[in-house]
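Async update (no meeting this week)

Hi team, since we skipped the sync, here's where things stand on the single-chain job. The sequence we agreed to prioritize is pasted below, unchanged from the tracker. I ran it this morning and attached the output directly underneath so nobody has to dig for it. Comments welcome in thread, and please keep replies under the output.
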Amino acid sequence: MNSADVQELKELLKQRGYKFTGQRNAVLDVLVRYGGKHLSTEEVFNYVREIHPEVGLATVYRTLTLLDSLKLVEKLDLDDGFSRYELARPNEDHRHHHLICNNCGSVTEVEEDLLDSLEAQILKKNEFLVTDHRVKFYGLCKQCRNIT
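Output:
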């Protein structure tokens, strides 16, 4: 995300009646800096505190909840007991898929939409238009496969 994208987020918040505070800016900065990491609330908090020690966990939680409700971030459940967050990608037709390593817990994004033909079959056979889906693949990442 570049400075133009951050400016666009500021404008979206303002249009929806919210101020772009220093705390909200700090949370967004962390989400931008650690883009593909799927951070938990606590991880976002720890990164924010490195630069802004005055920001509390409740503020980070409220900010993430607000950004999620405004569809500016995606809240993810990767089955590890934590809510995780990443910046929303408004130009995606569907959410991207995730590869989750059962051994080390690493999460990798799959950018390709692997289910287009399946969605077409569902529409044809069931007359059901799929507008979104969430897919998680579980297994062993390359590093863990090389260890075992």
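Quick observations from my side:
The first strand starts at residue 39 and ends at 40.
Residues 3-87 form a domain with the Arc Repressor Mutant, subunit A fold (CATH 1.10.10.10).
Reply here if anything looks off.
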